[in-house]
Amino acid sequence: MVADRVGAVIGYELEELIGHGGMGVVYRATDVKLQRPVALKLIVPELAEDPRFRKRFLDESRLAASLDHASVVPIYEAGELDGQLFLAMRYVEGSDLRTLLRRDGPLALERTLALLGQIASALDAAHRSRLVHRDVKPANILVDDDDHAYLTDFGVSKQLGGVTTDTGRLVGSLDYLAPEQIAGGRVDARSDQYALACVLYECLTGTPAFRRESEAETLWAHMQGHYAPVEGFEHVFKRAFARDPKDRYGSCGELTAAARVRTPERHRARWIGAALAALAAAAAAALYLSDSDVEALPPGSFVVALDADGGIGSFTEAATAPSNIAVGEGAVWVLDSEAETVARLDLTTQAARRFSAGPRPTDLAVGGGAVWVGNGAGSERFGVRTTTSVSRVDPVSLKVTGTVELSRQPSAYGATPSDGFPRMAVGAGSVWAVGVDNRIYRIDPRSARIVAKIPIQTRVSTLAAGAEGVWFLNWTDHNLTRIDPATNRVAEGIPIKTSGLSGIAVGGGAVWVTSPDDGLLWRIEPGPPPRVRPIDVGGPLSFVSYGDGAAWTADYEDGVVTRVDGRTNAVTKQVRIEAVQSLAVGAGSAWISVAGGTRDGRLPAAACTAVESGGATPDVLMASDFPLQGSDGDVARGLADAIRWVLKDHGFRAGRHVVGYQSCDESTAQTGGYERRRCAANANAFARAEQVVAVIGPFSSYCAQLQIPILNRAPGGPLALVSPSNTDPSLTRGPPIVPGRPVALDRYYPTGTPNYARVIGRADVEGVALALLAQRLRLARVYLLDPDDDDLRGVLGDPFRRAAARLGVGVAGSDDFGVDTGEYAAVADRVARARVDGVVIGGADWVGGALVKALRARLGPRVAIMVGDQFDVGGLLHSAGRAAHGVHLATTEALPDAGSLTPAAARFAARFGPAARRGFAMNAAAAAEVVLHAIARSDGTRASVLRSLRALHVTDGILGSFTFDRGDIAPARVTVLRVTDATPKSVRLPISLEGAAIERVIEVPASLSG
Fold it and tell me: Do both 964 and 886 map to the same domain?
């Protein structure tokens, strides 16, 4: 055979194949000249043909041969003959450590330390000679009959300086790879120490520390640092497996020395610990990411390529979580909204080239010979970052070759940001982009000029384009809608029988749409007639992308990535990856961006501040989660300051516990406000940070919808979440705030134990308070007006109607109104004909402000007009002018100047100063007070804190005296203000309420609010 001929030529007689692997084969052979047994390794041709590998192999083999150590297998010869690389070394009679472990299971501690102590000494000697092994594993540790250990295979594995070949596929021994090897970083002696720690762990437990069911899961486990603890060795592995190499042991000898220093009592339980470790390793199906270290810009966020089998094809670090991904024009393109850059990732080497295509990038698409980058310059005034221009970038030079200006005038629907769901696409011969004016712009890719502006009558959420046509989804109904490229007109929509649509992709002759609420991927084959088929992927989903004959879905809440065969509709692979941020398919892989999570119990530095604890070491942690960027940033930072004030006022103590605090950001630069992807990523981080026993937040109810179930399933039991600002009734009561979208409480509380409370009244309580106001104003006939918008319809009107029936207030009629202001005069006429003395308007000022103006003109000043705090006073005055004067506005937000204050509230208002009058500041302080009370009455565990919280009775606190009724503050207090255009100088109100005066405070009993 070929090997025999090669052996004969180089002077060795091959006798027996004793090993093989990805790098080559190993034979037991005889040196013909010296008649001594040798182990002869022949390198596979694919590697031998690489000149870089060949040079490094020969150089490092010579260096390894110079090592004179009793536990290093001596190298007799290394060379090349007719293109065949070979290595001859001493043949060790005995076995290797891998065979011993497979045959005997875990080794005795004394034997483990005796064997690995020899290997540690050999490695340290190699490191002093500036030689790194790079492939320390049981198979490379030989053990003779006298238990003498030898380290073999120096300088053979992964010679190309990382863990990838030129194809980008990972190679090497995955169970023992250090995180920096996985990420393609610098490999040094500390990488060998990490691998030796993996071997130590396996010797003690019989199971590799990070082994999971798939290659992808194993690599994720390394990056996160999740492994089952071995009792008595916790301190050893915590340091040895440190994500940052500088935090590991200084040498391999230090590692084995530390392992010898153990607690005898703990050692007796080692066998139980080993069995549990094996069970935990086998059961761990989830993949978790590490947090980031800002100083060294290490990984914590990633771009990962999965192949059709779920294996990792490449793994690229990122300082912050990439916002959007696109594949095409020979590369992968990644938008980083935090750094305001775009990066080109080479498909072969994963090398990144960063560039800027303009200020404030918002979106990304590839095709037509170019990269297309959306920019959000000037969009800050909308409160979110959205696309106001599109730049064409040459994919080779990375130079901007043209820019298209879109509208900067928002539609009545307001501005919508891109949050991982593309609002730009290339297909059907054009570039398509959604503008802030809710028109879809058609751009010629050659001239970079607008060729059509297509008005859309619903709020566009995302779109896709390709051979199957141009399609978009919208926020206001459950239709999939097509644009006819021949006419630039919107065709009739295709209804999808589901409660909400999220992602869209085209490919394989179909349109693919996700519906997160029911976990379905919809395949729509355009007609006529269209064929609509649901596919149950067996897990959650939000994003979707199509390529290479398959549809891939991913979910940012649970991190599940699924591959669906485009021909059979069958699920062929499913992998769980933490905190998915975006998804794109192309070049044979699914490309996924992932946000960093916890490591060693710490929250990610990219999203959270350092721990504050007054200088003491905290026993437990409290975290907050608010949108610290964008239009709500000032208010949100004020909430964090209010929490800090309460903690400092309590000396960072709750009973016998020292409490630490971290402020986290649920917003991103891309959206300019709270971000659903960040909400989910932060919640996953909180859940896995073991010291965190309670979270204050989030700011938005939509964010809470994601965070509650994640925290409810947290390791160690449900994690308490207390919000100062959420008002969505469905979070605690179940009936939907949005009709037609039922939300069962088990969706939020899958464990059956509620873990959520709020120190603010629900939105529907404002409707009840307005019914009480109508009774006190002696109104007899009230008309209810609701916006024709699923997100706002019924929020005030339905609870008003129910309470009015019990209070004896008459409802004269009801009606819907749309965004077309031309219809408002007719609506006002219908209200006038009903002979009313009061009107309740649901919605927000951007929907109902002009209606107020029409009603005043028709009804006069005596008819009472009542609204909720979805109306911004300034916005109402802007849209309605003097017609807004006298409008009654109800809010559940606590206001320092509303009524008499408890001593605790007066003290907070006096010492916190003017900031106490910022939006929700008193509610945030009350939330901190509640959490500290719960911690003080607990044993410091999550379960105990939650039990204390649910049973809490607050007396004379910042918000007065109250309890929690199924998570809702009871009683709820509603402040009614009257719009006057000028707030009295003696009164300080939040910015959103300036221009109004406090009228009264209404206490809503639980018996009336439900």
Answer: no
